[in-house]
Fold this protein.
Amino acid sequence: MCSMAKVPFTPDGYKRLKDELNHLKTVERQKIIRDISEARDHGDLSENAEYDAAKNRQSFVEGRINHLGDRLTRAEVIDPTQMANLERVVFGVYVTLFDEDSGVEIVYQLVGEDEADIDHGRVSIAAPLARALLGKEIDDEIVLQTPSGQKNYTILDITSTAP
């Protein structure tokens, strides 16, 4: 079973997961119950693809509800806007980096594993880049080994809100 370790979340990430859990419980569960009932009305369940699909979806949704419930029960919400001094990179902050190789500025927010979404600039606190950034300050240089080679970054800014 899962350990009882706290799971870090930003306030936005916590709200997104709570909203997803609520949607699964109030909307998806009801839809699946209707789908299973309709499929049962079609007769022989042994050769009923709609019934099998609905039961599979039900299994997935119940598993996701259990997972989200566990994560939210153990959530530790950390709000970077409540931190007095942001001289160093910590959980939840937005870090503006200069990619020395491409010459591009990029902004990442360091978030919990359940919130990570690289397409939206949210990097898991467990990711190598986030681990390399933790504790660093503005103007610090970061050297990161990646599968495609070495990446070099300079920290331009650290903020508690999206720039």
